[in-house]
Design brief:
By secondary structure, this protein is α+β, with helices and mostly antiparallel strands. It has helices spanning about 15-30, 65-80, 120-130, 145-150; strands at about 1-10, 35, 40, 50-60, 95-100, 105, 110, 155-160. It is globular. It starts with a strand and ends with a strand. The mean pLDDT is about 90.
Length: about 160
């Protein structure tokens, strides 16, 4: 099953954090697909937060969703993420599960598809590079169509 993951960083050397995360995600699926890297404005972050680097990834996953979430969170912590932090504060690495092909999950720890992905240009723009025709439950159209409706929003430019 194909699973979408959003990558983001706005603390430390963000390009290096994303590069290390790509290597790690390829260890889970050597056929992982990645978008380019985007520089994006912080959304719903504390005033003065630095710009983000964002990227999207799609991997094949056959295990449980909670096991994947646990792996992603353990990797984030290995890169310096704190277990207790302010909401949307700067971080070296953020890995978000976005969707799993045809799956809906709603628990206290995980909701798939991600409930805010369709309103976040920094998620949808990179995702449109790797799966433009994908239909995700809760989006008003395909990934490409959703991006078209978001293009008037915050700064989101491909840099790599």
């Amino acid at each position: 099953m194909r699973v979408g993951i959003g990558l983001g960083s706005n603390r430390g050397v963000s390009a290096d954090e994303l590069a290390a995360a790509r290597v790690w995600l390829r260890s889970l699926d050597p056929g992982a697909k990645f978008s380019g890297v985007y520089e994006t404005e912080p959304v719903d972050c504390p005033k003065g937060s630095p710009m983000f680097l964002n990227q999207a990834c799609e991997i094949r996953w056959n295990g449980s969703w909670m096991a994947l979430l646990d792996l992603l969170q353990a990797y984030e912590m290995s890169r310096g993420r704190k277990t207790v932090r302010g909401r949307n504060h700067p971080r070296a690495l953020d890995l978000d599960l976005l969707y799993a092909e045809g799956v809906k999950v709603r628990t206290a720890r995980l909701e798939l598809p991600h409930p805010r992905m369709g309103r976040r240009r920094f998620v949808m723009e990179p995702l449109a590079e790797i799966c433009p025709e994908r239909k995700v439950p809760g989006l008003p159209g395909t990934v490409r169509e959703t991006v078209g409706w978001l293009r008037k929003g915050a700064i989101c430019r491909r840099i790599g």
